[in-house]
Amino acid sequence: MKNFKIFKNPYILIGDVKDKHQPFYKEYTKPPRLILNSPMLCCPFQENKRFRTGPTKKSKKPGYCEVCYTKYNDYNQHVLEYEHREFAKDHSNFLKVDFFINNFNSINLNEEVDSMTVSLKIQEISSDLAYENILNISKVSTDNEEGEMEYENINQFLNSIKKHGM
């Protein structure tokens, strides 16, 4: 005889009729309670979950209507108001949205980004003029043996260096 176990408490033993597989067992300290009215494919040892059957009542939350730009306390009541319906019927209130949609539909989204044309005004500046504009921006102060010399801009400082032969 193979290994066997003697159960002292209530147990459940599930075994194979042909004894090809090892049996599965579970020993309980207190006897399991079977729930025989459980739905199909549900565990007969667990209590059934209770689901809400009726529709839940949504609480009334205050909000802001983006159509007529007003605050409301109850959305369903606000939508039924005369002012909201009249605003929604007026087509002139949605001209900007219609314009955006029409322009968006005319763009081919499958085109590559490189093929899109961008219009920028670029002004050509000679490199000397560009450097002079940059050099005229900042102030420079230097300390040397003669004392502190202040220059209004970097360009003056560079010219003084050239004159003194530094």
TrEMBL record:
Sequence ranges assigned to domain DBF4-type in this UniProt record: 58-107
Pfam families attached to this UniProt entry: zf-DBF
One GO CC term on file: nucleus
UniProt keyword annotations, A-Z: Metal-binding, Zinc, Zinc-finger
Superkingdom assignment: Eukaryota
Species assigned in the record: Nosema bombycis (strain CQ1 / CVCC 102059)
Stretches that traverse the bilayer: none
GO terms assigned for molecular function: nucleic acid binding; zinc ion binding
Organismal lineage: Eukaryota, Fungi, Fungi incertae sedis, Microsporidia, Nosematidae
Record-linked InterPro entries: Znf_DBF, Znf_DBF_sf
Name this protein carries in UniProt: Protein DBF4 like protein A
